[in-house]
Design a protein that fits this description.
Elements: E1 3-6, E2 9-11, E3 17-23, E4 32-38, E5 45-51, E6 56-58, E7 66-71, E8 76-81, E9 90-96, E10 100-101, E11 105-109
């Protein structure tokens, strides 16, 4: 499985973005998909994940602002990000089962 990420960009504080992660192959059999982010000088940080059962988990820093979802028919996982803050600025990576990773998409929150 290979991923193509899109949807990153520059947004003002309080704004919204939706990240997409489209898989080249079928997502059937994948147990968990999720998003991580990395900022310069920091380690990769967990953001959110969704299980095959549709159970979702979020880091406390994004809970209530971000929503992860998946469309199995489109082989795509999404991250809807609302009420963005400058500290959300990072490169965001999607993954499947912690094995397959996207190339990353830059999100910059700045006025």
């Amino acid at each position: 499985v290979q991923f193509v990420e899109s949807g990153g960009g520059l947004v003002q504080p309080g704004g919204s973005l939706r990240l997409s992660c489209a898989a080249s192959g079928s997502m059937a059999g994948i147990r968990v998909m999720g998003w991580y982010r990395r900022t310069p000088g920091k380690q990769r940080e967990f953001v959110a994940q969704i299980l095959s059962s549709s159970t979702t988990t979020y880091d406390d820093s994004v809970k209530g602002r971000f929503t992860i979802s998946r469309d199995i028919a489109k082989n795509t996982v999404y991250l809807q990000m609302n009420s963005l803050k400058p500290e959300d600025t990072a490169v965001y990576y999607c993954h499947a089962d912690y094995i397959h990773w996207g190339q990353g998409t830059q999100v910059t929150v700045s006025s």
